[in-house]
């Protein structure tokens, strides 16, 4: 069926319901031009399934498909629902869409039969690419599952730990008996060891699944690694995967959220587990070591590896090489965001068939930087400024002050401060100052600390949470403020300031 006849027939059929007798050439041209500009692929199909018209988006997505059959691009199950007994149905639903190069994407397909004198003459098919939307939906479902898991673990941990405490308690009492044979003692020690192991798994699950805000503290990376490995140990063993740990003793501490580091490691180990499934002697190796001013975590596997083209996209949101239903493509992108927020780096080396190495770098807390910082405090009350200057001037720290937003901006325009501590509510607004500071230097997004006498105000709380900012309440706890500034100053890398 010629393209022109298809479009004219469709327009005639659609307009006949409004009393139009014919379609003018100008209307047909306008309709064709409008259809060609639609962002989603639009196809016109004859009753045999042959594509007779494709708009520009269709050509960008599939190439020149005129003359091809719709069933070449849509999964057979959907086609069986669209065409029943040779009759085309009005249909809407999710489908797996195939491109000519055999790649696939998640689509939403709608088919509308067009009638002329009660007879189907053509079918209009519109295909929307919903890959990202579907991945986000699945990610939300996974998040809801994790929330449910957290609530379940929180509710049952007490019931699990109580009997485990009884088991370990009686085991301890029995081990104090002098009449035990060596065989009996060995069996009781095994009972106690495995009860403690079960208790440790419960505590690890509770710590991982509990809803909590990120909290960065001085962290032993080896502890975070052990916690992540403990969560995966049983699963890896039952899957026949050998896990090796080579953890450098006495690692320097990093300034990090241990639960977020644990989350990153779980994501990486999960990917490694998928990569080694099916290979001979599947092995995952986790190492920690010091590299200059960094702690380096390496997760290595002998799996299938990653192709050169895919390696460029592994950190892209929603990109995944896993089969449908096995991944959302968000694990590595989330991990990348977490590590970069920690002023660290995560990189991957891999070749197809040669295994994969994931390198995670976190900056060491460097005590040499203590006392070398410069702080700007901003408040419209001079007495408060005097107190802050006195309270924060320790170990050679330089404290500048400003009473107004304009004075603060003038200072920040010439001096790069390690921190800016500003009142939230003052003349000119601390929030306005924050936005202007970020305009001068985006590094101030993580270097601005708010001071407030009203930490319960909903609008203030929402702003602080949305921006991920720290605040201290008035009256001040100077010990807490000094500890925070000292840790953050040691954690931040000056070369990352822009």
Q: How do the helices and strands line up, and which of them pair or pack?
A:
Blueprint: H1 3-16, H2 25-37, E1 42-45, E2 51-54, H3 56-62, H4 76-82, E3 83-84, E4 87-88, E5 91-98, E6 104-116, E7 119-129, H5 131-175, H6 182-209, E8 217-219, H7 221-238, E9 242-247, E10 254-256, H8 258-276, E11 283-291, E12 294-301, H9 308-311, H10 331-341, E13 345-350, E14 356-363, E15 374-378, H11 382-392, E16 398-402, H12 405-412, E17 419-423, H13 430-440, E18 448-452, H14 458-467, E19 470-473, H15 478-491
Helix pairs in contact: 5-6, 6-7, 7-8, 8-10, 12-13
Question: Could you explain the architecture of this structure?
Answer:
- The chain is built from 15 helices and 19 strands.
- The chain is α/β, with parallel strands linked by helices.
- It folds into 4 domains: about 5-130, PAS domain (Beta-Lactamase), CATH 3.30.450; about 130-210, Helix Hairpins (Orthogonal Bundle), CATH 1.10.287; about 215-365, Heat Shock Protein 90, CATH 3.30.565; about 365-495, Rossmann fold.
- The strands form 5 sheets. A 5-stranded antiparallel sheet has the order 2-1-7-6-5, sandwiched between helices.
- It is extended, with a radius of gyration of 31 Å.
The biggest sheet, with number of strands, parallel, antiparallel or mixed sense and barrel status, is: 5 strands, antiparallel
CATH homology superfamily name of the largest domain: Histidine kinase-like ATPase, C-terminal domain
- Count of alpha and pi helical runs: 15
Q: Please name the CATH topology of the largest domain.
A: Heat Shock Protein 90
Computed structural class: alpha/beta
N- and C-termini, Cα separation: 62 Å
The CATH class name of the largest domain reads: Alpha Beta
Summarize the amount of helix as a percent range.
40-55%
Shape: extended
Query: How many strands appear in the DSSP assignment?
Result: 19
Rounded mean pLDDT is: 79
What spatial order of strands do you see in the largest sheet?
A: 2-1-7-6-5
Radius of gyration: 31 Å
């Amino acid at each position: 069926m010629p393209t022109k006849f298809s479009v004219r027939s469709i327009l005639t059929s659609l307009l006949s319901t409004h009393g139009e007798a014919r379609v003018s050439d100008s209307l047909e041209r306008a309709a064709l031009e409008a259809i060609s500009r639609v962002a989603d692929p639009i196809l016109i199909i004859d009753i045999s399934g042959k594509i007779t018209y494709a708009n520009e988006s269709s050509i960008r997505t599939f190439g020149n498909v005129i003359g091809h059959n719709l069933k070449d691009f849509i999964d057979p199950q959907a086609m069986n629902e669209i065409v029943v007994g040779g009759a085309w149905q009005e249909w809407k639903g999710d489908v797996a869409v195939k491109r000519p190069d055999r790649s696939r994407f998640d689509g939403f397909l709608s088919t509308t039969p067009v009638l002329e004198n009660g007879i189907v003459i053509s079918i209009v098919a519109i295909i929307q690419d919903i890959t990202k939307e579907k991945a986000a939906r699945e990610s939300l479902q996974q998040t809801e599952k994790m929330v449910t898991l957290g609530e379940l673990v929180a509710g049952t941990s007490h019931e699990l730990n109580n009997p485990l405490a009884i088991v370990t308690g009686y085991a301890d009492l029995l081990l104090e008996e002098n009449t035990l044979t060596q065989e009996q003692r060995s069996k009781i020690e095994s009972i106690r060891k495995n009860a403690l192991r079960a208790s440790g798994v419960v505590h690890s699950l509770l710590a991982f699944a509990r809803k909590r805000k990120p909290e960065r503290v001085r962290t032993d990376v080896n502890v975070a690694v052990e916690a992540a490995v403990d969560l995966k140990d049983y699963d890896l063993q039952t899957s026949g995967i050998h896990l090796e740990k080579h953890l450098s003793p006495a690692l320097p501490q990093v300034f990090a959220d241990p639960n977020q580091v644990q989350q990153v490691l779980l994501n990486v180990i999960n990917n490694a587990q998928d990569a080694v499934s099916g290979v001979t002697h599947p092995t995952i190796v986790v190492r920690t070591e010091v590299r200059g001013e960094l702690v380096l975590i390496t997760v290595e596997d002998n799996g299938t590896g990653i192709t050169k083209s895919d390696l460029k996209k592994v950190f892209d949101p929603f990109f995944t090489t896993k089969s449908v239903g096995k991944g959302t493509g968000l694990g590595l992108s989330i991990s990348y965001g977490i590590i970069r927020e920690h002023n660290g780096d995560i990189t991957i080396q891999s070749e197809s068939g040669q295994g994969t190495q994931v390198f995670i770098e976190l900056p060491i807390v460097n005590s040499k930087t203590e006392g070398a910082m410069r702080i700007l405090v901003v408040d419209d009350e001079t007495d408060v400024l005097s107190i802050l200057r006195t309270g924060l001037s320790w170990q050679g720290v330089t404290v500048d002050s400003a009473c107004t937003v304009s004075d603060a901006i003038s200072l920040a325009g010439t001096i790069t401060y390690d921190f800016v501590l500003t009142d939230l509510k003052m003349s000119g607004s601390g929030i306005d100052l924050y936005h202007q500071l970020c305009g001068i230097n985006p590094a101030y997004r993580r270097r601005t600390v708010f001071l407030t006498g009203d930490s319960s105000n909903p609008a203030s709380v929402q702003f602080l949470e949305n921006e991920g900012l720290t605040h201290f309440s008035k009256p001040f706890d100077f010990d807490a403020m000094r500890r925070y500034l000292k840790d953050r100053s040691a954690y931040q890398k000056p070369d990352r300031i822009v």
